[in-house]
Amino acid sequence: MVRQPYPQAGLGGGLGRRALFGAGIAAGAALAGAPAMGAAVLGDWLDFRHRFLHPDGRVLDTGNGGISHSEGQGAALLFAVRFDDRPSFERILAWTRGALRRPDDQLLAWAFRPGAPIPVPDVNNASDGDLMVAWALAEAGDRWGLAEKRALAAEIARDLLRRCVMRQGEATLLLPGVEGFLKPDRLVVNPSYFITPAFRALARLVPDPAWMALEEGGLALLEQARFGRWRLPADWLALSRGLGRPQPAPGWPARFSYDAVRVPLNLAWGGHARSGALRAAVEFWADPTHAAPPAWTDLRSNAVAPYPGDSGLRAVASLGLAALAGRGRVEALPRVAEASAYYPAVLTLQARLAWADRGLDGNAACSEGPLAIELPPAAPPAPREGGNRGWLRGIWPVRG
């Protein structure tokens, strides 16, 4: 059971947690009416759209056999809004709602398998996908003046609060899905599902203290649930129903890997530049013992992957380094063209959105002076079994 008090200060580059949450809501309101992303970045969206978006609106996870999932649909919806691409947005939304909608609420089935006898064999949801879809709908409603999009975003937000948010001890936590994560002796969570900017966007739309409590709960969890030599979060965590600290969840490798790479992305995007988990991730990737940032580390043995991380990981690492410094050169981010598959491409574009949202390009306002951290050069990824299938295993809902 999580009983540690919430962090009281120092999580937001100088802002207290309540001030940061309020500032994030205000910034989201301003962003919704801002111009679309600049032409220099537009090419990344066009490349993503060309490579991963089917004409019918289905986003293809090319690293996992061409399946589609709610997380990918939500990410593409947000990209379409930010790049002012309403035709693509409407196609993506139509396919998403047509193929993944669940019968009893406004949440989405988590995966679609083309060519299977039953393409959606499991109607359980994935709350990160639902968050992304609702966030994108809220922004679409504001940008294009579409009340029906805002109304649908609000329905999804209310269903998330009703079905996927729970209290355990002093913490408010996000279940990864409606089913399968509440065990007799433990609760299973995925720390990368705590998407701070989405919480803030939905708090503007559906005011509820649970949104800020989710942000606080996620931050507190990350301060407790760090393991191994580099003090990193695990992809999946188990929280005991009794006393005890979070531990890597049974059923998955105890790794900082394809899921947990999104933890520093979300922390940087949310302005939590002083988070210990963000700094730990950047320091791991920049460790001088690595020839290049490794794809993962085992949190029990401290072994690292025998191959480097892909361009998506390098994008998150560059974003994290800039967030710690309060400034950076956006040219350091990889391009979508460098991505070998869907997942590194989506991480790259999300890192670009986060970079723009935080105003990191040449902005020294949050800097605390030079950082003694430098990322090692990129290395060509080595061939390995299963591509990004470590990440696919991570998004399967737990049944055991």
Structure explained in plain terms:
By secondary structure, this protein is mostly helical. The chain has a single domain (17-395), classed as Glycosyltransferase. Helix content is 44%, strand content 6%. The protein has 13 helices and 9 strands. It has helices spanning 17-32, 39-52, 70-82, 86-100, 127-144, 147-164, 196-205, 209-224, 262-269, 276-285, 311-325, 342-358, 389-395; strands spanning 68-69, 111-112, 165-168, 171-174, 186-189, 237-240, 247-248, 255-256, 297-298. The strands form 4 sheets. Strands 5-6-7 form a 3-stranded antiparallel β-sheet, with no helix packed on it. The protein has a two-stranded antiparallel ribbon with strand order 1-2. The chain has a two-stranded antiparallel sheet with strand order 3-4. The protein is globular, with a radius of gyration of 19 Å. The two termini are 20 Å apart. Mean pLDDT is 87; it is low at 1-14, 363-370 and 382-400. Its EC number is 3.2.1.4. It comes from Falsiroseomonas selenitidurans. InterPro entries: 6-hairpin_glycosidase_sf (IPR008928), 6hp_glycosidase-like_sf (IPR012341), Glyco_hydro_8 (IPR002037). GO terms for molecular function: hydrolase activity. It holds the Pfam family Glyco_hydro_8.
